[in-house]
Amino acid sequence: MGVEGRDKVKALEAGALALSGQLGKTVQRLRKSYNLSLSELSEQSGVAKSIISQIERNETNPTLATIWRLSQALDVSIERVLQGSEDEPFLENSTKGDTPILVSDDGKCRLAIIGWIKTVEWLQWYIFNAEAGGVLASDPHQRGSVESLSVLEGELEVEVAGIVEIARTGDTLRYRSDRPHIIRNRGKKPAQAIMVNILKAAVME
Description:
It is a single chain. The protein is α+β, with helices and mostly antiparallel strands and 205 residues long. It has helices spanning 5-33, 38-45, 49-56, 64-73, 78-82, and strands at 101-103, 109-113, 123-130, 135-138, 146-153, 155-160, 163-168, 172-176, 181-184, 191-198. A six-stranded antiparallel beta sheet has the order 1-2-3-10-5-8, with no helix packed on it. The chain has a four-stranded antiparallel beta sheet with strand order 4-9-6-7, with no helix packed on it. β6 (155-160) and β7 (163-168) form a beta hairpin. The longest helix has 29 residues, at 5-33. The chain is elongated, with a radius of gyration of 21 Å.
């Protein structure tokens, strides 16, 4: 049974408010998953920092063009940005096109973010691919963080605080990631690994 007149307007306003609220939460969640500041997301999307802040606080109703710019900067579809957080299915399918990719400074290493967005503040995991000679240098994560690198193909070298270890196909390295760490592909062939970063692991002494 439908609603008419003022009741219909109220229903539409309530629906728009709910959609705007979920949009703000989603944008903020995605932005934090990439460790982006408001200024950085503004620069990448072309949307004013103040507008992004208002969207995240549910203080404005952005235009479709604004939502599109943010979705492009966050490497997700508009549909995913607008997807309701409360009604997310238990069985979730993230396609290859929806999977964000991070690239190393030398352009030879790629990190496909396959971790769940809701765990990004304490648990992150990736598919790591490195061309021959590729180097991924990372800044320290928060104190107590531990990273695990399981090599699926090829050979990778990890350096932490001057200590170097090599992992070959089938090997797993675990190391402190709360200090500068470097992953290198010293081999002549591409390498692939699963990387898991536990940001709130027990503090190691």
